[in-house]
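name: query_chain
kind: protein
chains: 1
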Amino acid sequence: MKVFGFLFTVLILSASFNFQAEGANVDLTPCLSANWGLCGISVGRFVYTKYNSWSDVDTKSAFGTTCHSQFKGGFHRWQWKWSGKFWCPSLSTSVMGTSTQWKSRNGAIEHAIQDYVTKMTSAGLLKVEQLNQ
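structure:
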């Protein structure tokens, strides 16, 4: 049991250095004092808060213009799922592709792009020529 406690402490300390490198603010005091219940709550709260809000906007080149995407995570039926958004402001200010409840961030963005293309082509706002750019 002592070995488990030591390994868990090393894991938490290495995670704390990673969090500090990203400028995060997580209280690891309970972890360092081997209070595992409060440690789990503190780290869990930090992770949930970090990923349960929309990420910074990521810029991508697509369809001959600049487009944007975002993702966020959250719990759905006791499983962590990802949602995504995708839009190209220069092509349409009102159409946005969305996706929810995907197992990965990449899956959420991929399906948001698919939703965007479906909406834009259905509305006649995205031409076949633009899809190849």
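note: The two ends are 58 Å apart (CA to CA).
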